[in-house]
Design a protein that fits this description.
133 residues, mainly alpha
Length: 133
């Protein structure tokens, strides 16, 4: 492996950790809001049809997915579980007829970022999901 290839690989991994860190921070913030249930969270969750007693459990699930995603040994499991969680968020937004690009597809945007971060930082994922030109 040439020095140029190693440098490119290192830059890819750094970029992957930056993307993963940003996505992880956003998702961790989302989870933490459910622990403290400020009024805006209560109003939003209620508008989506989620009773207040579900907030804490949803927050715990979100936090667990983020932790699994950010730990290298469990990152693939975390990405799969995070994708499932985002699928539920998409379904919830579709069910209440929220706007398509800003609400319904937001989970798709996050899911793409979750997998992009993992793809960039883990050569095994790149080998499993190669981009072909």
């Amino acid at each position: 492996m040439t020095t140029e290839t190693k440098t490119a690989g290192r830059k890819m991994v750094i970029a992957g950790w930056i993307v993963s860190g940003l996505v992880g921070a956003f998702l961790a913030m989302s989870a933490s809001f459910k622990f403290f249930t400020p009024d805006i969270v209560r109003e939003t969750m209620s508008g989506l049809g989620w009773p207040a007693h579900h907030d804490l459990m949803i927050g715990i699930i979100e936090a667990a997915c983020v932790v699994l995603y950010l730990v290298p040994q469990t990152a693939v499991l975390g990405a799969v579980l995070e994708t499932a969680l985002l699928g539920g968020a998409i379904a919830t937004n579709v069910r209440v007829d929220n706007p398509l690009f800003s609400h319904e597809l937001f989970g798709v945007y996050l899911g793409v970022m979750v997998w992009l971060g993992l793809w960039l930082r883990d050569p095994r994922v790149r080998a499993l999901l190669p981009l072909r030109g």
